[in-house]
Amino acid sequence: MKLDAADTGGKRPVTTVGVVGLGLLGSAVASRLRGAGHAVVGYDIVPACLEQLAALGGTPAKSGAEVARATEVVCTLLPSLAAVEEAILGADGVAAGAHPGQTICQMSTISPALTERLAGETGARGLTFLDCPISGTSGMVARGNGVIFVGGDRSTYERWRPLLESILPSAVHIGTVGQAMLLKLVANLLVALNSASAAEALAMATRGGLDPAAVLEVLKTGAATSRMLDVRGPMMVQGEFPAQMKLDLFMKDLHLIQEAAGAVGARLPLTDVAERLYAAAQSAGHGAEDLAVVITELQDRRSGAGRPRGEMH
Fold it and tell me: Which residues contact 259 (CB under 8 A, 6 or more apart)?
């Protein structure tokens, strides 16, 4: 379905895009698409997410199948492997309502193995599939920062590249289906380690009597800087952790990283240690907060923020 130029203020015709999963990242993607002038039809099991989509000028739908019937291409952004599989292959999922040749851009972080299986099963139904995980927090995506890794048929990528670049200016073809997802897990491995190391550094500096806000600004200008120091350092200094990536969801990613490493025979000693820190923060009740909350595992709860907890086990 295309919109007339008159419907878009004289601009060129735009695409009608489906978005299934309107949580933090899905909502950011929908907002980027609307900002680029595309029509968006979306579905989520949470009514408030549908209301937010309507406020953006999008059209809420009642199922993934209904989204597919109304759109040219469907993006899925969901929190778990089971949710992705149900949303695409379920009785009322995207594939059930899709028309021949329709493209599914699977943007959730899942396993390379499930990615390959979804591509095979949707291909058997006459659909096309792109492996399109996003590297970037929801806040970064809302601002147009980050990158989309793309795996799949090159011609399909070229067809949808302008649309993907309307979400994020960088949408890079990596290789075959599954390879983009593997790279996303590699990227999240660095997110995990860089965030944990930022937490450790800031906790140590504060324990030594330094002003953490001043330390953060100085570190960001030198060789020790990292993107996670920019994104999550301020949360750690302020002791407030509004979710850009919920720790509960990131634990799923960490376990996918470990699983994928096992599949390819890679050793991850640093990641294994970091996973235990994040798991401890989750067990302490911080699962709904941003993964920057890992710093609490390096602080003394008796003395407040920035104080080390002591020996970690």
Answer: 111
